[in-house]
Amino acid sequence: MININLLSVSNLPKLNKLRKLELSDNRISGGLEVLAERTPNLTHLNLSGNKIKDINTLEPLKKLPNLHSLDLFNCEVTMLINYRESVFTLLPQLTYLDGFDADDQEAPDSDPEADGDGLEDDYENGEEGEEEDDDDEEDDLDEEVIDDEEDEDDDLEGEEEEDGVDDEVRLSEEDEEEDGEDDEEDEADDGEKRKRNLEDEGEEDPEDEEDDEDD
């Protein structure tokens, strides 16, 4: 809820699981006890750019046992003498104030759990898993298409082989028919030859008889 002209957090709903709350650049000057009541598990609180002037205004935050990062940049309270020491004394659970710990060591760039980076990673990993599944499905489809094409090729080869066998059968049948016709023609020729021989023999018989009579 950044820069929305909030005067207080009195209307904040109860959010037991909320861990990080951004309230910077508003006009909040007090009433922080609401946070302890409605966001009991808060770990990060950003109140930069608000109207907080006194250390005592922060006292209700003592009831947030998990609070370890508090930002008060550009609040008047940061101009007080011994501001940092006073806040760390008031809120001993704090690890970082305005991005630095009590020894002036800078805080890490981000907290994965507080920033929701873990959720984003899970989401990205989920997307990557879906893409891999899609790729696997596409590969399976490609393999099926290839298998179908190979089956079609096999069918075509089988049809060609059957056609070749049919052609051979037809040729052998035609050869047998031709052989049969040749045999019939040969038999007819033999019959004609026999008839001619018989006729020739019949013509010779009378002459032989006449010769016998003359004798």
Topology of helices and strands:
Blueprint: E1 20-22, H1 33-38, E2 44-46, E3 69-71, H2 83-90, E4 96-97, H3 112-115, H4 117-214
Parallel strand pairs: 1-2, 2-3, 3-4
Explained architecture:
There is one protein chain. The protein has 215 residues and is mainly alpha-helical. Helices cover 54% and strands 5% of the residues. It is built from four helices and four strands; from the N terminus they run βαββαβαα. It has helices spanning 33-38, 83-90, 112-115, 117-214; strands at 20-22, 44-46, 69-71, 96-97. It has a four-stranded parallel β-sheet with strand order 1-2-3-4, with helices on one face. Helix 2 (83-90) links the parallel strand 3 (69-71) and strand 4 (96-97). The longest helix is centred in the C-terminal third of the chain and has 98 residues, at 117-214. The chain is rod-shaped, with a radius of gyration of 56 Å. It starts with 19 loop residues before the first strand and ends with a helix. Mean pLDDT is 77; it is low at 204-215.
Shape: rod-shaped
Query: H/E order of the elements?
Result: EHEEHEHH
Helix content: 40-55%
End-to-end C-alpha gap = 159 Å
Q: Provide mean pLDDT, rounded.
A: 77
Structural class: mainly alpha
Low-confidence parts: 204-215
Major sheet: order of its strands?
A: 1-2-3-4
How many distinct beta strands? 4
Total helical segments: 4
Rg, Å, rounded: 56 Å
Proportion of residues in β-strands: 5-15%
**Mind summarizing the main beta sheet?**
4 strands, parallel
